[in-house]
Amino acid sequence: MRGNAGIDTLTIVNSTIGGRLNAGRDDDTVTVQGSTIGNIRLGTGNDTLTLQATSVSGDIRGGSGTDTLNLPAGTVVTDSSFGTFTVVDGASYSLTSGTFALPSGQTITYSQFENGSGVPCFTRGVRLLTPHGPVPIQNLRPGQLVRTDSGGDQPIRWIGCRAFSAAEIRANPRLAPVRIVAGALGAGLPARDLLVSRQHRMLVQSPIARRMFGQDQVLIPAIKLTALPGIFVDDAVPGVEYFHLLFDQHRIVFAEGAPTESLFTGPEALRSLGAEAREEILAIFPQLAGGVQVSNPARTIPRGRQQARLIARHLRNAKPLLAENWGAGT
Q1: What does pLDDT average to over the chain?
Q2: Name one Pfam family in it (predicted).
């Protein structure tokens, strides 16, 4: 089975492909659920492969771009460069080549991958802007209104959380949050120190973004911002509790005044959630069970190399991530 030339989104559910699954050229997103596949080959672009309850009798190979392999929580990975680790909810990881043992017990060989993504989320204590002012995220409940940038005040459809101890963070440093020091984004934001998971995306609004992408605003994962002053992985936290916030659509909300994203129900996000949380979300949005996203991203999400170039240009030119004319949510 082969994808087309150009950008493809391919979802395979409850199927058997005895031969090779080939992605096309350019940037492809491939999701395989409840299926049996012979071999998987990605193309030459920046591709994303997500496996869910799937058996692969051969091997999996990325391509020449920056490729992402999202695996089920509980998968044990043995990577030639990064050693042995277990995939957990809320974590990201780096890859090169090696093997992984699925929770089902099957061992699969992979090569030519660069990373895997976890679910984006806020930490306990972060204050989100509501019609009644900033409210700590742990005090919010489904049905309560949260202020968004373009849809007005929107009701929360689902909120979930998961805690990790200091010992768990020491055992898996990828669980440590990113700390964004007050004012580090520009325009005086965030108003207080903000802690988010590594893959949680922050909004960047700047002339540099417009020159690169043809629009002022894009979403960039927090871990990509750590090259900038005042933004770093805080591995000294005495444990962390991550919260996930879901609306009818992917939204831009305001955490400590800074524009950032709600949970985006793409396949990798749902894949990284625990079974109970995933079942709750699917009960609210049953269309997600078939691989259908609730909505498109609230803003453009550049590819990995573009993200790195954007941040490098901001650093080189000493320009803030939020231009001084940013006014929403402050």
Answers
A1: 82
A2: Hint_2
